């Protein structure tokens, strides 16, 4: 299977499946000398994992990562102090599947003859034949996006060194749309939301805060802990702090479920989504990603335009559209309305608007980059639908009995955020390399 690799300088290869032993992200191009912990990587994974709230699948995967390669196992010389530092070799992050039981496998076996409308199950069966990984949909399951979150977190850590922040939030859900919000407000709201999720996640507290897994443990020792955690999933989940929605609002000033900067809009989104869910159906929405602190000129022309590279987020399952800046709204504008006019203030370039979303000609303008993703409703629904028997091609009906998400919007925003970080970092490598060579040429030739 090709298509599981992305990047030129910062490269990521993913593998695994929803009901295989687990999933893997292999990262190449990471500079040496950095220190990562499973705890901080999990801090982003818990934002995407299932079973966290009423808008996600009831599957109880904890998504606990294990760093397997790419870091020094010991100081390279006595007292060097570089144990656990990245060493320039590929960083491998494993995400074992711990909540895969026969009852759920049997549910897929009982329904796998009948492809789910709106899902890749028919096309993948036709392409890969009867050995297609149809238990949990393999790499066509949303579960594979955990690898993007893990790799993207690593990219975000590198970007922060250069003052670049990548963050995301829910702009629209179930037909309810948030009004425009400035980047400072959106960033601060998203950070508070992440803090809340960390504080209230029982696995974050039980496994990492209580140090059942530490970076000083060997791989096999960590796997012993995870083997025990597999038996304790329900017990650990029961330890989640008991806190009311009102207390969340008071302590964190964010909505307890929906990562939207406007709390009233977030509540309206939740109510609209739940209304649809009660009918057995699902809903979609829009996720917005913003990048601040990007230097002018990041990107490449023609086939490697930065906005075109961001458009590759159509590769995220359930994403059916990607727009930058005003996006499709430009069709209703005149040139005068669409153009982001420019003026100077004290020698600094100022744009009057940002309809271009911070990118023109495939190159950054220095403004905030704004990207939006259109997310389709979850294809797995609890309503009868027409389909076929993929072995006999006979007509039949299907009503889903497998675990499913009422909406995917609430779990895709961290995927979009971290995928974006991978794209930006890959281009930052190119940009800094080009600038270094350009400046060297100028200094010599002049």
Structural features, described:
By secondary structure, the chain is an alpha+beta fold. The protein has one domain (5-445): Chorismate synthase AroC (Chorismate synthase, AroC fold), CATH 3.60.150.10. Helix content is 36%, strand content 17%. It has twelve helices and 16 strands. A hairpin with a 2-residue loop joins strand 10 and strand 11 (348-351). Helix 1 packs across helix 4 (145-160), helix 1 (38-48) crosses helix 12 (409-445) and helix 4 packs across helix 12 (409-445). The mean pLDDT is 92.
Helical residues, percent: 25-40%
User: Main sheet: which strands, in order across?
Assistant: 1-2-3-5-4
Helix-strand topology string: EEEHEEHHHEEHHHHHEHEHEEEEEEEH
Distance between the termini: 50 Å
Q: Give the class from helix and strand content and strand pairing.
A: alpha+beta
Q: Unreliable segments (pLDDT under 50, ≥5 consecutive)? A: none
CATH homologous superfamily title: Chorismate synthase AroC
List the domain count as a whole number.
1
Task: Tally the helices.
Answer: 12
Overall geometry comes to globular
């Amino acid at each position: 299977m090709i298509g599981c690799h992305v990047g030129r300088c910062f490269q990521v290869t993913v593998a695994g499946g929803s009901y295989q032993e687990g999933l893997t992200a292999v990262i190449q191009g990471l500079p040496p000398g950095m220190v990562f912990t499973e705890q901080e990587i999990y801090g982003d994974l818990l934002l995407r994992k299932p079973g966290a709230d009423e808008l996600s699948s009831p599957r109880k995967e904890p998504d606990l990562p294990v760093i397997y390669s790419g870091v020094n196992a010991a100081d390279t010389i006595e007292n060097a102090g570089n144990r656990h530092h990245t060493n320039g070799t590929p960083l491998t992050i494993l995400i074992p599947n711990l909540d895969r039981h026969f009852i759920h496998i049997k549910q897929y076996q009982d329904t796998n003859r009948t492809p789910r409308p709106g899902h890749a199950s028919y096309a993948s069966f036709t392409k890969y034949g009867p050995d297609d990984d149809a238990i949990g949909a393999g790499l066509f399951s949303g579960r594979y996006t955990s690898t993007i979150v893990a790799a993207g977190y690593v990219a975000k850590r590198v970007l922060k060194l250069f003052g670049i922040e990548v963050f995301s939030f829910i702009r629209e859900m179930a037909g309810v749309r948030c009004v425009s919000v400035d980047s400072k407000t959106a960033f601060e709201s998203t950070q508070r939301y992440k803090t809340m999720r960390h504080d209230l996640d029982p696995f974050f507290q039980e496994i990492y805060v209580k140090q059942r897994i530490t970076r000083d443990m060997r791989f096999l020792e960590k796997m012993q802990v995870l083997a025990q955690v597999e038996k304790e999933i329900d017990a650990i989940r029961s330890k989640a702090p008991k806190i009311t929605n009102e207390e969340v609002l008071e302590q964190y000033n964010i909505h307890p479920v929906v990562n939207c900067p406007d709390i009233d809009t977030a509540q309206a989104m939740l109510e609209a989504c739940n209304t649809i869910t009660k009918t057995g159906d699902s809903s979609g929405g829009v996720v917005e990603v913003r990048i601040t602190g990007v230097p002018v000129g990041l990107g490449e022309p023609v086939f490697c335009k930065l906005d075109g590279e961001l458009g590759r987020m159509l590769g995220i399952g359930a994403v059916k559209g990607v727009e930058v800046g005003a996006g499709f709204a430009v069709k209703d504008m005149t040139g005068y309305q669409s153009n982001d006019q420019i003026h100077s203030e004290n020698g600094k370039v100022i744009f009057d608007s940002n309809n271009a979303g911070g990118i023109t000609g495939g190159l950054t303008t220095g403004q905030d980059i704004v990207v939006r993703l259109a997310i389709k409703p979850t294809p797995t629904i609890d309503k009868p639908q027409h389909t076929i028997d993929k072995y006999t091609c006979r007509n039949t009906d299907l009503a889903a009995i497998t675990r499913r998400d009422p909406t995917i919007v609430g779990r895709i925003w961290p995927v979009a955020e971290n995928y974006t970080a991978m794209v930006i970092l890959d281009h930052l490598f190119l940009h800094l390399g080009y600038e270094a060579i350009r400046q060297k040429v100028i200094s010599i030739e002049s």
